[in-house]
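One-letter codes give the sequence; each number marks local geometry. A record appears below:


***
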Amino acid sequence: MLYRLSTLAILLGLPLLAKTYAVDGIVVAVDPAARTMLVSHRAIEHYMPAMMMPFRAESTVELAPLHPGARVLFDLSVTKAQVLARHIRLSGAPDATLPAPKEKLAIGAPLPDFALTDQNGRTIHAADLRGKVVAVDFIYTRCPLPDVCPRLSANFALLQRQFRDAAGENLALLSVTVDPDFDTPAVLAGYARRWAAAPGWLFLTGNVAPLASALGEIYWADEGSIGHNSTTSIFGRDGRLAAQVEGSNYRPDQLTNLIAHQLVNHP
């Protein structure tokens, strides 16, 4: 009997074992039906670095006053069974200015035309990539978060090595800056050298907003840095969108497999 009571006490006490972390971030999107909010948050001390990720709210009611750009504070309750955002409230600070969301390309849609400048000062158009498999991601050279732009670039560097024979002729890697005012061709050339970029890996600047919008990339300036949602898009040889990978924490082999599939099965 004593054993059973002790066990019951332990089970009842499990919720108390939850760890709670304070979170400070900017709301990017709200999905009341799924009871989630997409938040670009600052580093969560002793838990995770700054990044953008969805959080499930304990109460749908707390999502009601939220909107894109709202600055929020909340408590993140973490147990082995679940992770929940609790006590969500507006911080009182002015809203961040987020670009108006536009409908992004559907799978199968063609790569829209663009005219951007690469790290060598050349103007690159979508037509220049015809017949190639194309991977597009979004970075900026001053990114302070090792788990975002540097990770994205490291993944492209891995692709460049793994598909060395295809790079340039059959495969194009496009890293588009979300900080075009600072990331001039000269700055991007230095960044390209840092990653030992071969000719098939282009770093693009200029009026990037239309392409970013079409590919679902949202970015904004905030307190000296730039927040963005890190969308990577894969286009087949036919110039049509074949797949997209969200965020920067995907496994590199996911991207490798998507590229390999397009190169091998769609000659």
